[in-house]
Amino acid sequence: MKNVIASLRSGDWKALLACFLYFDTGFTAWVMFGPLAPFISKQLSLSPSQSGFLVAVPVLVASIVRVTFGNLFQSVDGRRLALLGISLSAIPAFVLLLPVVPTYMLLLVLGSFLGVGGASFAIALPMAGSSYPPRVQGLVLGLAAAGNIGAVVDGFLFPSLGQRFGWQHATAAVLPLLALTAVSVLLWAHDRSAKSGNAAHAFGGFAVSLLGVVALVLLVNAGLFGRGKSGQLLLPVLGSLVALAVLPRRYLAVLTERDTWVVMLVYSITFGGFVGMSSYVSLLLTTQYQLSKVDAGLVMAGLSFTGAMVRPIGGFIADRLSGVRVLLVLLVAISLCNFGFAALMPPLAGGIALLVALYLGFGLGNGATFQLVPHRWRGKAGVMTGIIGAAGGIGGFYLPVVMGMARESTGSYQLGFATFGGLAALAFVPDGAGRLSDLVGRETRARDRGPALALRRATVRRSDCAC
């Protein structure tokens, strides 16, 4: 505990708290449709695939917008970007308070704006990291990213309010939380990272990526890229191309590095599993185990709390043992849990036990993944946070989509769990394991340079630790 307190005193804890609140309420808005999905599906008579796509759209939009939002962070003060993100995240709740009859198409558009809440990841983490030295980045970024606990608020708050007041009015509960966060950002947040680049060009890229992915969502829903499943599976590829098209060419160089793809794969499994399952678990519990909507929300809250709370622990352990070694163990555990669920399709108690184990793996893995970044990609804080976070969001998009397709096609979730168990196992094919081992060596050499050198670099270039 003394080490943790000393670490927090080495930087600006109020700025860290403001970043935590921004990510927390952004996450609350982001996955808001998840616990409300059973209500929405019943009112609009949605198929399993439609329900899965609805809760997946905010996840996808966040993953695409994070890249250009992270690029914008390179040239614009993080506080201004946080306030912009908060404002855009509030739009869906305001619209649903109006006397309008919600349609599936309208909800897809509103879900896209909820995705901006998830894009807070690309601002909150590097802004928090900019106030601390490199030697405590695993702990600090883990604490900032524990804003994942916003999903706990979703599970506790929205199902009960939806049952009492209707799901449309229940969405208004996010507005005072966003307002409180805006005040904390104004008073406490500080962005100490160096800025460079063309702010106007970066803002244009952000706007194009957001509006472009909204248009793609509507076109896929209209069947332009193939009816049903094919269009949905193609959507992340199309959205990623939009984001990459507007990024400065100098940032795309990181995509030629094999380490980038390894970390993206890992994060698509850990964070993608966390956010994707948090978006879909209420539907899973109500359809597979016939839980009530409120009880499913409470279980979702407990699972999300578990995953969010262990994320800082994952970063803390990785600071001491090596992020890669921790991740290798966790990926094995995640794979086994998924395959176990697919093979057994256990009763309620066993199913919840396996979900708890999965969330522990997700949360610890999320913290361990970002412990690697300051050692491997110095001076590329915003863009690397955005790119790696995008990979996590794409993983989170596919989880509910594939689960919905599996349920609709086979009447069971077995194929869905088996698919994600196989993806986690991909990290252990010989080539993938070799690449992770290479990254261990790079990480170890970076740490062996010593804390004195790290502190001198932090003094000269604060932006280097903002990942």
Question: What would your notes on this structure say?
Answer:
With 467 residues, this protein is mostly helical. It has a single domain (12-465), classed as Growth Hormone, Chain: A, CATH 1.20.1250.20. It is 80% helix and 0% strand. The protein contains 21 helices and no strands. The chain has helices at residues 2-9, 13-30, 33-44, 48-73, 78-97, 104-118, 121-129, 137-145, 150-165, 167-170, 174-188, 199-221, 229-246, 258-288, 293-321, 323-344, 348-376, 381-410, 414-425, 430-447, 451-460. Helix 13 (229-246) runs antiparallel to helix 18.
Strand-helix topology:
Elements lengths: L1 H8 L3 H18 L2 H12 L3 H26 L4 H20 L6 H15 L2 H9 L7 H9 L4 H16 L1 H4 L3 H15 L10 H23 L7 H18 L11 H31 L4 H29 L1 H22 L3 H29 L4 H30 L3 H12 L4 H18 L3 H10 L7
Helix pairs in contact: 2-5, 2-6, 2-7, 2-8, 2-9, 2-11, 3-4, 3-9, 3-14, 3-15, 4-6, 4-12, 4-13, 4-14, 4-18, 5-6, 5-11, 6-12, 7-8, 7-18, 8-15, 8-17, 9-15, 12-13, 13-18, 14-15, 14-17, 14-18, 15-16, 15-17, 16-17, 16-19, 16-20, 18-19
Compose a concise summary of this entry.
The chain has 467 residues and is mainly alpha-helical.
Q: Could you report the average pLDDT, rounded to the nearest whole number?
A: 86
Largest sheet: none
Find the structural class using helix and strand composition: mainly alpha
Strand content: under 5%
Low-pLDDT ranges: 450-467
Q: CATH superfamily name?
A: MFS general substrate transporter like domains
What gap, in angstroms, lies between the N and C termini? 24 Å
The helix tally amounts to 21
CATH architecture descriptor name: Up-down Bundle
The tally of strands reads: 0
Helix fraction? over 70%
Instruction: List the helices and strands in order.
Output: HHHHHHHHHHHHHHHHHHHHH
**Total individual domains:** 1
CATH class: Mainly Alpha
